[in-house]
Design goal:
With 104 residues, the chain is an alpha+beta fold. The protein has a single domain, classed as Ribosome hibernation promotion factor-like (Double Stranded RNA Binding Domain), CATH 3.30.160.100. It is elongated and about 50 Å long. 17% of the residues are buried. The protein contains 2 helices and 4 strands. 38% of the residues lie in helices and 31% in strands. The chain has helices spanning 15-28, 79-103; strands at residues 2-7, 36-45, 56-64, 70-76. The chain has a 4-stranded mixed beta sheet with strand order 1-2-3-4, covered by helices on one side. This is Ribosomal subunit interface protein. It comes from Flavobacterium oncorhynchi. Pfam families: Ribosomal_S30AE. InterPro entries: RHF-like (IPR036567), RHF/RaiA (IPR003489).
């Protein structure tokens, strides 16, 4: 399972940020590990220098083996909250997707 972290120009994409979020993805999606080929995470600050509520965005795209990519988006006031919300959504989506496949 390959993990790629991307940030826009308003967020510093330093190694600590990448290591933290990659680790959280590996832990959070461990049970799907053999069913996923790649995960891309995109972080953005929609207002740049200005402050506003819920201006941090996290988009997680998961590419399951032999299936269409699953993409979720979450907005929050911090990157961590946006990431956490997106991770919860993607777990739910993957669970639903794989349960439907099992039922057929």
């Amino acid at each position: 399972m390959k993990i790629q972290i991307n940030t826009d120009k308003h967020i510093e994409g330093h190694e600590r940020l990448e290591a933290y979020f990659s680790g959280e993805l590996e832990k959070g999606l461990a049970r799907f590990e053999d069913k996923i080929t790649r995960i891309e995470v995109h972080f953005g600050d929609e207002n740049g220098e200005k402050f506003s509520v819920n201006d941090k965005k996290c988009v997680i795209e998961v590419r399951p083996v032999k299936l269409q990519p699953i993409t979720v988006t979450e907005h929050a006031d911090t990157l961590e909250k946006a990431f956490s919300g997106a991770l919860t959504k993607v777990k739910k989506s993957l669970t639903t997707t794989f349960e439907k496949l099992k039922a057929h």
